[in-house]
Amino acid sequence: MMRVTALATRLSTEVMRRLRHFGDFVTVPLAIVIFVGLAGVYRLYLVLVGVAAWTLLEYLVHRIVFHHYSAGRRLHRLHHDHPNDPDAERSSLSTPLIAFPIGFLLIVTAGVEDGSAIFA
To answer: Considering the entire predicted model, what is its pTM?
Structure first.
C-alpha cells in the first residue's frame, strides 16, 4: 500500500508541474478568444494596441523588476540557471496575478467592449 501511495504522490506532483508549466498554452488562448468575443472583431485595432502595450509592460517588468530588485532577481536567476525546468518557470502563476487587475481596470474604465479588446 505504501508503494501505491508513493507512486500516486509522485504522479500527482509530476502532473502539477506540467500543468504549471504548460497551463498558459491553454488558458491564455482561451482567454483571448473569450475577450475578443466580448469585444467584437470590429475592435481589432484595440486588440493590436493591447498587444503592443502588454509587450512593452512585460519588457519593462522583466528589465526593471527581474534585473534590478533582489526578490525578482533571485526568482529570475533560477529560471536562467535552469531554463528547461518546469519548476523554475513561474509564468503560469505570475501572469494571472499581473493580468487580472490590469484587465479589471481596463474593463471598468474603458467599458466591456473596448476594455476586453485591449485586454485580449
So the answer is: 0.63
